Amino acid sequence: MLRTVALSPRTRRTAAVLTLTGLALAVAGPAAAHAKWFAEGADGGDWGFFLSPLPLAVTAAVVVVTVLWRLVSHRLPRPELPFLTPLGRLAPFIPRLVAIHMGVSLLAFSVTGHFLTPSLPLGEVPGGDFAGVVQAAIGIWLITGIRLRIPALGVVLLGPPALLAAGPVALLETADTLAVALFLAVLPPSDRAFGRVAPSPQQLRWALFWLRMFVGIALITLAFSEKFTNPELARNLLEAYPELNLFALVGLPVDADTFIVMAGAIELLFGLLVISGAMPQVAVLVALVPFNLTLFIFGTTEVIGHLPVYGVFLALLVYGSHRESAAAVPWFPRPADWRALVTRDPASRAADTPRDQRESQGAA
């Protein structure tokens, strides 16, 4: 006779999280490869491909999964993976670490003759070599960790040259750089050892909100600009690197177009999950699978291009693993929060100042 084993609520929650992680890992493929970095270019805007039955059905499924993901997260503890809580000790140093990721990426782009992305040569940017020098200077400044609100503004000002050179879609594809810039503008490292910072709750919520939004926008844009509406570009990438189609390598009959749809759907899913901020520990661990699989194929270029995203993933993972900051990761501003942001009085500005800076001002 079979006996029914009663599971504790904590055990059931842990099992649910592990099940979601396993399912996500099972479908995660090398969707993070930027086709424009490694394949022959092709004209995009082929909305007929996206509006065919399979891409539409898969996109609808991705939206449903995102909604369910956030609903399930409300029934789980924060952090959802308690064994990762020791990572929360890195929280005071995350702005410094994120700035280093961005700074190294910008400096490497200038050294290799690119601007903001491996797909945009410096020679096509207004100002050419001078733009490269400015980009390198901003990168070095970010690495130093000194007064980073100024170079964060500098990163924002790199956008117009990229817009003039490559157009609005290419600019949206690099929105992860704007995400890091806004994060550092709201939450810069302090002058204390290793840039340690103790942000106010309001400051942390807004910093993470901008970080999530623009990284999500970059991933969603790439899902459409390199896959859903530009299948020819994706086909060129698969032709040049057939090992990307893991399904074909293991003998599963998945044609190129089906794989393109799946890769685009995964990238779209990651973008929506980052924006939602729900279950950040699980979302980041799953996202790291495709982002790291392609490193074995594309090497250094992929590492440099993805450094800002790696910094963002680190921030979401660490803040999501800290018991005090985990609730700030999925936060969305309400109308009252927007009004308070626009019409801040001196008291609210003081509340948005990191605690360590308030203490030093008080001591002075």
TrEMBL record:
Q: Where is the composition biased (Basic and acidic residues)?
A: 352-364
Signal peptide stretch: 1-35
> What are the protein's UniProt keywords?
Membrane, Signal, Transmembrane, Transmembrane helix
Q: Where is this region: Disordered?
A: 345-364
Annotated TM spans: 51-72, 93-110, 130-150, 207-225, 268-289, 295-319
Reply yes or no: does the keyword Transmembrane helix apply: yes
The protein here is known as DoxX family protein
Q: Tell me what organism the protein belongs to.
A: Cellulomonas bogoriensis 69B4 = DSM 16987
